[in-house]
Design brief:
The protein is an alpha+beta fold. Helix content is 47%, strand content 21%. An 8-stranded antiparallel sheet has the order 1-2-8-7-6-5-4-3. 36% of the residues are buried.
Length: 306
């Protein structure tokens, strides 16, 4: 029976399958994906990782705390997110306990550690997915999540890049923040520059809509000068400032790419920085946005490692 207290979400349901079967649907990544998410990785042992991609954007990451065959599974639970107030990986815990009842299983799920503002949304999620667990464990089919559109697939990749950048910035020490990256800039400048790539999402959206953007008129020399000016202006940028910039600009950039259609992504415009060549909205997203963003993240991480 559903129950949500001030500190936890609790759900109990009876499943027409033995505990061994239900346990497999809590630990086997292929089976987890049959009732929760579009792709799953899981290493079901204490300290092993679990990651559930629900729809390309809502991605849970945690770590198994306890795995007792056929009776209990516990893992930490949080989101790879750009939301400033999102539940982060490791912040909450999901506890499944299984008890035999005749030929079936009584499953109790307790989700602990969620902030008050997040409980209603997570309760709604469990009320969707736990019945699907009962269906699959008892041999009934569950409709798979819808396929991503062309824009959603690219936006999912962009969201993942921005999350990587967020976690890289947050993990950077004071000393490493001043290290020099391959670009010849301090880590802080490179991080802020990388976050500024969010603007390219709106550039791609303009191309897809057949609109002219001033960025198309920038020559390679002008872009290089702009980057040099940015490095000077933000030479003293702090972690907090770079992170705030990313969290302010990243979500809107992801939404902009998410709304692009296959036809829009195929539209082109002449680019001065490419010698007047016609580049498509997709090429802007895959190259200067996704490709260069990944290169900057790798450069930052290399500088941090020393």
């Amino acid at each position: 029976m559903p129950a949500t207290t001030t500190d936890t979400i609790e759900r109990t349901l009876t499943i027409a399958a033995p505990p061994e079967t239900v346990f497999s649907f809590l630990t086997d990544p292929v089976k987890i994906a049959e009732w929760m998410g579009r792709s799953v990785t899981a290493d079901p042992r204490p300290g092993g990782a679990i990651r559930v991609d629900y729809n390309g954007f809502d991605i849970m990451r945690g770590e198994f705390v306890e795995v007792t065959p056929h009776s209990r599974v516990v893992y930490t639970f949080g989101w790879e997110t750009l939301a400033a107030d999102g539940v982060r990986p490791g912040a909450s815990t999901v506890d499944f306990s299984l008890a035999p009842q005749g030929n079936g299983t009584v499953l109790r799920m307790v989700h602990r550690g969620l902030p008050e503002m997040a409980r209603a949304g997570h309760a709604t999620g469990w009320d969707l997915y736990l019945p699907q667990l009962a269906q699959r464990a008892s041999g009934k089919a569950v409709a798979p999540p819808p396929a991503l559109t062309a824009g959603e697939e690219l936006a999912s990749r962009l969201n993942a890049r921005f999350v990587q950048l967020r976690e890289t910035i947050e993990a950077c020490s004071d000393r490493a923040w001043k290290a020099t990256t391959r670009e010849g800039w301090p880590v802080g400048v490179t991080a802020h520059h990388a976050a500024s790539h969010a603007g390219l999402a709106h550039f791609a959206r303009a191309i897809s809509a057949g609109e002219h953007s001033p960025l198309a008129d920038y020559t390679a020399d002008a872009l290089n000068q702009g980057n040099a000016n940015h490095a000077t202006e933000f030479a003293g940028v702090t972690r907090e400032q770079a992170l705030a910039h990313l969290l302010a600009e990243g979500p809107a950039a992801v939404d902009a790419v998410r709304g692009l259609t296959a036809a829009g992504l195929a539209k082109t415009a002449a680019m001065a920085f490419a010698g007047g060549a016609q580049l498509s909205a997709r090429q802007i997203v895959e190259g200067p946005l996704l490709g260069d963003l990944q290169a900057h993240i790798e450069s930052i991480r290399a500088a941090i490692r020393g």
